[in-house]
Amino acid sequence: MRNLKLILSYDGAEFSGWQVQPDTTTVQGTLATAIGRITGEKVLPQGSGRTDAGVHALAQVVTFVTESSVPTENFTKALNGILPASVRVLGVEEMPEGFHARHSAKAKTYRYRIHRGSICPPFLARYVWHYPYALNEEAVIAAAPLVIGEKDFTSFAAVDPERGKDGGPVSNVRTIFSSAWERTEEELVYTVRGSGFLHHMVRNLVGTFILVGRGTFQVDDVTRIIDAKNRSVAGATAPASGLYLVNVEY
User: Fold this and answer.
1) What's the per-residue H, E or C state across 208-231?
2) Which is the catalytic residue, given 11, 23, 52, 221?
3) Is 80 exceeded by the pLDDT of residue 164?
């Protein structure tokens, strides 16, 4: 048996998220079908995380076990020949038996893109959140570092019906290593790196930061919202289109 690691990039706009579901197109299901065509096996590849419908990935990490003897470089070519153009395998590597895409992960980085121009180009629309409205960007930028550290992020966690089914931890405590906004031409871009993220956590953080920029919250309110451990006190969930899984560290 071989334990293979894939680096996967995908346009999430065409999928109902990562996790396989009946009667709908998902990244996991699409990849499983492609692997099966090559190996003749029925496998369910495991991702480092379950990205939501519409969320993109620059470098999702995936593992699966196979008896196939196909060389890793041939796996890359064969999978890309089968997968739709919206999904690309960037590389395949053989890993030790105990390596797992999700359980072995030590840190992840996400990026969120907000287009601030008055008109969003149509070819960009599904890759950003178009927000042309008045916004105190300095306040948004100032609020970002307040989430850094080991904290209980219940206020930014959506209900996840799948959570805990695999026997994994159910704590809402996570460690954020870095959190920052940057203005780049017509975009306001948020980059956050942490030990792990709760369901919708990054999008809920973004939605809250936007309310800081609108004046609904003050910068210091972010700390109060974290301490409340109550989802209802934070901002709304930002659209999926602007979110990208950038990197997973092991």
Assistant:
1) HHHHHHHCCCCCCHHHHHHHHCCH
2) 52
3) no
